[in-house]
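User: Okay, second chain of the day. Same drill as before: sequence in, structure tokens out.
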Amino acid sequence: MFKLAGGDGVGVALGEDHDSDGNPTIYLGTQNGPIFRFITGYTSIRPTGTSSQFVTYFYLDPDNNNVLYYAALSRLLKTNNALTVTPTTWDDLGAGLQNIRSMATTRGTYDPDNSYLFIGDQGGNVLRIKDPQNATSLVIDGKILHHLLQQLQKQAVLEKKRNRHRWTIDHSIVRT
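Assistant: Same drill. Structure tokens below.
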């Protein structure tokens, strides 16, 4: 075990590419926006002109380690060249979110028609971007959680009208 950095538990990701000694490429963030790539030494790859939350949120696609996403408050940046990206070569997909807090991609072989980037933001939204590796702007395919909550609220209102004074328990979700 070896120590590369320390701090308040910001993000880290291990790439599949290795140096001549067999060590993986490491991506790590520190407080308030800095992000580094470590191969044989540290290289700052923080996108130029970006601001960040205290926790620096980024996401390395686990199925394609060339693709790296960076959350700059309400803006999303990406690169399809994580091993060579510099602070000035990120693609800025734009703004429109409320402080990005988490990201994840669909897993498996990439298919532009069925691959997505999911983003959770401070506003409680879960957003979906279709074909994220080829995205050139922040075109959100859907607000998943918001839509789901609306549907659940409608269903609860209908159920309440049907069963005004009767309580029911769905035993299929009760686990012992």
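The radius of gyration is 20 Å.

User: Thanks, on to the next one.
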